[in-house]
Design brief:
- The complex is a heterodimer of chains A (about 120) and B (about 110).
- Chain A is mostly beta strands and about 120 residues long.
- Chain A is built from no helices and eleven strands.
- In chain A, strands 2, 4, 5, 6, 9, 10 and 11 form a seven-stranded mixed β-sheet that branches. In chain A, strands 1-3-8-7 form a four-stranded antiparallel β-sheet, with no helix packed on it.
- In chain A, a hairpin with a 2-residue loop joins strand 7 (about 65-70) and strand 8 (about 75-80).
- Chain A starts with a strand and ends with a strand.
- Chain B has a five-stranded mixed β-sheet, with no helix packed on it. In chain B, strands 2-7-6-5 form a four-stranded antiparallel β-sheet, with no helix packed on it.
- With about 110 residues, chain B is mainly β.
- Chain B has strands at about 10-15, 20-25, 30-40, 45-50, 55, 60-65, 70-75, 85-90, 105-109.
- Classes of the chains: A mainly beta (about 120), B mainly beta (about 110).
- At the A-B interface, strand 5, strand 9 and strand 10 of A face strand 4 of B.
């Protein structure tokens, strides 16, 4: 089975530009999570969805960040406008209903560099 | 979530068992212990989890003390590919995994 698929793997952009990161969860998984990883702050949960509905977005740093899940097989994380401090690796993860609460399947991440 | 404490780093010889400790002295009775690892430039990977009993799967064994205040992840025969950051996480029925700094494990030939 294909795992969680993220794109792009690497993104370099200029400050002020819009960035869209994409995630395809594992088929049949009901939960989707977006994490951000930096050297300073480690891995942080930004937002998670259950059945395409955002459940907890308390980790989203500010209004410049938004996430959507229009259907069960696709989610986006958008940053507009981007700033250099948004540079990080962004991970998407999913898990099925009934799985242990902490057993997530992570993608390979999208490394974002904002100049 | 209960807080966990792990050593910052440790070395292990290839082929030997690696024993990774984790302290979680404030763990509640219904909180689970989860272990993940993150190999360089990859996403975190689930290893194992447990509540009270010791657990074993194809990747590792998890030993939880009787008072549940600490646990040990055992990699029975460490290989160079086991070099990674290992995270010990304690949660209840909460999807908000909080990853700490973890233990950087280096397996040496």
């Amino acid at each position: 089975d294909a795992g969680v698929i993220q794109s792009p793997r690497h993104e370099v952009t200029e400050m002020g530009q819009e960035v869209t990161l994409r995630c395809k969860p594992i088929s049949g998984h009901d939960y989707l999570f977006w994490y951000r990883q930096t050297m300073m702050r480690g891995l942080e949960l930004l937002i998670y969805f259950n059945n395409n509905v955002p459940i907890d977005d308390s980790g989203m740093p500010e209004d410049r960040f938004s996430a959507k899940m229009p259907n069960a097989s696709f989610s986006t994380l958008k940053i507009q406008p981007s700033e250099p401090r948004d540079s990080a690796v962004y991970f998407c993860a999913s898990r099925p209903l009934g799985q242990g609460a902490g057993e997530l399947f992570f993608g390979e991440g999208s490394r974002l560099t904002v100049l | 979530d209960a807080k966990t404490t792990q050593p910052t780093s440790m070395d292990c010889a290839e082929g030997r068992a690696a024993n990774l400790p984790c302290n979680h002295s404030t763990i509640s009775g219904n909180e689970y212990v989860y272990w993940y690892r993150q190999i360089h430039s990859q996403g975190p990977q689930y290893i194992i989890h447990g509540l009270k009993n010791n657990e074993t799967n194809e990747m590792a064994s998890l030993i939880i003390t009787e008072d549940r205040k600490s646990s040990t992840l055992i990699l029975p025969h460490a290989t160079l590919r086991d070099t990674a950051v290992y995270y010990c996480i304690v949660i209840y029925n909460d999807y908000k995994l909080s990853f700490g700094a973890g233990t950087t494990v280096t397996v040496r030939a």
